[in-house]
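Budget justification note: compute hours in this period were largely spent on complex prediction jobs such as the one shown. Inputs:
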Amino acid sequence: MLALGITGAVVAVAAGLGALWRVTSGRRRRGDGERFAPGELPGLDDLAPGATLVQFSTELCAICPATRRYLEQVAAERGGVRHHEIDLTHNPQLAQRLRILQTPTVFVLDPAGRLTARFGGAPRRAELADALDQLVPQPEWNL
Amino acid sequence: MTQPVPTPTPIDSRGPRFGAGVTFVLALAALFFGLLLPLEPTLLLRIASPEFLLLLVVWIAFTIGTFFGIGANPWALVFRHWVRPRLSKPAVTEDPRPPHFALGVGFALSTIGLVLHVVGVPYGLIVASAAIVIASFLNAFVGYCLGCQVFLLLVRVGAIRPKSPIAG
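Corresponding output:
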């Protein structure tokens, strides 16, 4: 029956989108090396000596608060790492310029303000650790 | 609103997901009947059709949730009174504003679907129902709030200009 087939196909599309989101969300993407001067991003006047995690959120983002807690914890555990959150709700121009399509989006900036990695969605633990390892080496004896 | 308001009390995040599950079942049935039955020739027959009535139930719940608060949504009431007492304490709570906004997106979609169906536009109800099926599926079974993500895109294209801050 055609109606049943199309109804099933719509559910299949939904399941496919869900799977796609599960697979791609929070993956590390290489930064394009764009450099942000101090003060260029709202509220970010000075950068951390190791890495700065810039989280872009909105007031209506369901997983942003959990991501904030997680990134603050990462920053507390690693020396030289800082977390900074920017609310895009009232700053659509910034979202436009940085090509941000979803929240949270997380930028990893090195001490010079260069974008070394970006994550769409809540960053995966291992891939974030990987991005930070390159900027803030963990001591050998810690492994 | 100009004065800052404190963040609203967090809610059990399983509530909106339960509501999305109910919405999914109803919108799926509306989609199925919309595809199965030819578009009825008269206004009265279109309003009495199962696809219209099913989407109407979805619309009523979206409307109550959007305008009277997420806690007033009928599915939220069912969850609070009959489902939640059988569950363990919530592991995760969330800000009610994102799911409340998503209800508004659902309200807009279902309104469009119902209006197009009433005036006799073919596939209007079907497309709207399909969109609601996809969004509620993702919300209920994947934990991905599509309606919430639409917010940033709407702000970006300037379709909405939020006042600061947004009330829950």
